[in-house]
Design brief:
Radius of gyration: 18 Å
Shape: globular
Largest sheet: 4 strands, mixed
Strand order of the largest sheet: 3-4-6-5
Oligomer: single chain
Length: 203
């Protein structure tokens, strides 16, 4: 689920000696990613069906803000196990209940909380499916960042950059924008919060 390849291009720039491959369900994102870098191999595929890679061909696999779009976790984790080499790592960046309660997105758009809680898998659920495929949770990290609420951020929110904003009533969305604009005047910060799960293949 490389999307516009922003995370992937960052990795390529920081660790240029590796071989990078990625796949996404969106043809539109595939075109954007290819236009951003020629240092990765991009493919069109569905993570709910199969990964377009041979057995034991990857040292690591990662996905950011993708796991809640997966509908068949059995297939997903089975495919992760299949493509990873022994002791290979699976890194999942996702959101937990604690993240939702802490972050500014929920503060300004409280209607998104229930939406997010319903569509994101719990850590218990993810760990259970991973363990069934010999993928053991080795480490959990919490990442958060605060930054100014500026016109650029407000512009992105107005375009509903977060999919959850498209799933709440329009009146709730507009009320949230009013709260954000008031917070900008007061000089308040925006807080982002995420959870990083690091699994290792044990056989």
């Amino acid at each position: 689920g490389f999307g516009n390849a922003n995370y992937l291009t960052d990795l390529i720039n920081k660790l240029p000696g590796n071989i990078y491959k990625g796949f996404d369900l969106s043809e539109e994102m595939l075109k954007i990613a290819k236009s951003r870098t020629d240092k990765a191999e991009f493919a069109h595929a569905n993570a709910d069906e199969s990964f377009p890679y041979p057995d034991k061909s990857a040292d690591s696999a990662f996905l950011v803000d993708v796991i809640h779009h997966i509908t068949d976790y059995n297939i997903f984790f089975k495919e992760c196990k299949r493509i990873l080499r022994p002791k290979g790592m699976l890194i999942i960046v996702t959101d937990t209940q604690n993240d939702f309660y802490k972050r500014s997105g929920t503060k300004f758009f409280p209607e998104t909380l229930q939406v997010e809680l319903e569509r994101y898998p719990s850590l218990v659920e993810l760990n259970r499916f991973a363990f069934s495929q010999s993928l053991i949770l080795k480490r959990t990290e919490h990442a958060e960042r605060s930054f100014d609420i500026d016109d650029d951020l407000i512009s992105k929110i107005e375009r509903k950059r977060s999919s959850s904003l498209r799933l709440i009533p329009e009146i709730a969305f507009q009320e949230g924008l009013i709260r954000i604009r008031k917070a900008k005047v007061k000089g308040e910060k925006w807080l982002s919060s995420y959870t990083i799960l690091k699994y290792q293949k044990i056989n």
